[in-house]
């Protein structure tokens, strides 16, 4: 049976873009050369965007942040408690990278500011960099390439190995570690991994019970862990001694995970055959800045070693990764600014409601961030009781709670009164009304 083209009507309910009731234009500060696609996405929403390729110091941020409602950063800009105190209008922070340790997450949450990141988008880029470093270290071709550029022909096979049949030890079997596991096995490598959680291995990878067991069995050790108190200097003299003589260390995770002076000593003594380092305890804030001024004496030691590959934190620096990160984080910020959704926030309760549609006039969305103490919902619901509450959802995370509610048939004269009454509740941190 054939249907006439006009026999079925499909109605597509378009989501309504919400705006603050005071209708103040939203201003965004985007730093550190974040993907232009993210900037374009923000401007398409009508946001005012100031875009810079450089990071900002704490003093610079304190001077400028007060006029912005959102900020996008990568890893070099630090959002400290002092910066947050100066950010009188700030609603949301976007970290266009995996990590969020450059942001004081607790202070941001206490100020009612959710923080979003992109934990998975550059996984493939980092994994491919590690594979290239494993091969480069094993074949010493970065040394041969440098010698050729200085006019020296030095063809040799001593100390050069195939990676096939060698053991790769992965510390941290998350999204990067697991992708790396698959790529390594495709090269014929044996894969071990250590993680604080019991995880299902991919392929023929095997989880070991301790870090020391992984270190003693691996020809290559690669780190893929976050910066936490327990991962600070997790590779120091004791751990380097446990590694096999002639093995290699790769760190594309966080700079403070490796004790650099201890690593230098292990390399100079010949216990380690080489290393590849992409992250450092302190890093310059912009391209072209001196490396030595940031890291002082031991950076010179690293640079003087011929069997060390040094790269300037480029693990996620591919066109594909930056495009995906730009799309993911900008989408999260837009959802929060336009609809109040906190799905994916790292420091905040994750709350969301179905979007208000164009067919629903006189609807108000209440976005209420408050201290997580008893009796708050009773106070808020008393304020909302004269209205038709169509949807309401609340959740908490630690000391912070977040409530979203959609209120129907709210007249224009009720809007400001509604906001004022909710803002005056005893636990209020931030109240936004979107229309």
Range of strand content? 15-25%
The best one-word shape is elongated
Query: What is the share of helical residues?
Result: 25-40%
**What is the C-level CATH assignment of the largest domain?**
Alpha Beta
Q: Which stretches are poorly predicted, pLDDT < 50 over at least 5 residues?
A: 1-13
Please name the fourth-level CATH homologous superfamily of the largest domain.
Answer: NAD(P)-binding Rossmann-like Domain
Tell me about the largest β-sheet: 7 strands, parallel
Name the CATH architecture of the largest domain: 3-Layer(aba) Sandwich
**What is the tally of helical segments?**
14
User: What integer value in Å does the Rg equal?
Assistant: 26 Å
- What structural category arises from helix and sheet content? alpha/beta
Q: Using the coordinates shown, work out and report the CATH topology of the largest domain.
A: Rossmann fold
Number of domains: 3
Total DSSP E strands: 16
Name the average pLDDT: 90
Order of helices and strands: EHEHEHEHEHHEHEEHEHEHEHEHEHEEHE
N-to-C CA distance: 46 Å
Strand order of the largest sheet: 8-7-6-9-10-11-12
